[in-house]
Amino acid sequence: MAALSGGVEMIRMLFAAAVALFVLSLPIHATAMGGVFRRAAGFCFVAALLPSFVLGLLFPEGIGVSISQHPIAMTFVVVVAIAAAYVASAIRRWLRDDPAKKQPRLLEKTPIERSRRQQDLFAFLADNQPPDGPRS
């Protein structure tokens, strides 16, 4: 019964972390940190639901395996899951990266002319005066 309450407690903590991270990401949604918070919230949400979902699909009548009963087998399962995630990430990266679409790097820096919006108001006015002076 202690293992069951520990699992339930872990699921509650993951749900709480997912909600907290998502709520914290709302005010800073446009920043990179907001994206990090949302990804972490999604990870916590999936981590809370996925084990129960997978075990429910594979063993509808229930399963009685715990880490304390088979620690070596559970360690092996975790290592296999990490390896599968790495392989899936490598395949995804390989499919996404197209060498033909990559832009070649510039060997030297080239100056870029700033747009009119980036220049200050007085420089804009000075540049737009007629050569013979302002007309009245």
Give the structure's gist in a few sentences.
The chain has helices at residues 2-25, 32-58, 71-96, 121-127. The protein is mostly helical and 136 residues long.
What would you note in describing this structure?
Helices cover 62% and strands 0% of the residues. It is elongated. The chain is mainly α and 136 residues long. α1 (2-25) runs antiparallel to α2 (32-58).
Strand-helix topology:
Layout: H1 2-25, H2 32-58, H3 71-96, H4 121-127
Helix pairs in contact: 1-2
The counted number of beta strands is 0
Low-confidence stretches: none
Query: Strand pairing plus helix content: what structural class?
Result: mainly alpha
Q: How would you state the average pLDDT, rounded?
A: 77
- Series of H and E elements: HHHH
Please tally the helical runs, counting DSSP H or I stretches of 4 or more residues: 4
Helix content: 55-70%
Strand content: under 5%
Shape: elongated
- Main sheet summary: none
Cα-to-Cα separation, first versus last residue: 92 Å
> For the CA atoms, what is the radius of gyration?
28 Å
List keywords for this structure.
single chain; about 140 residues; mainly alpha; 4 helices; elongated
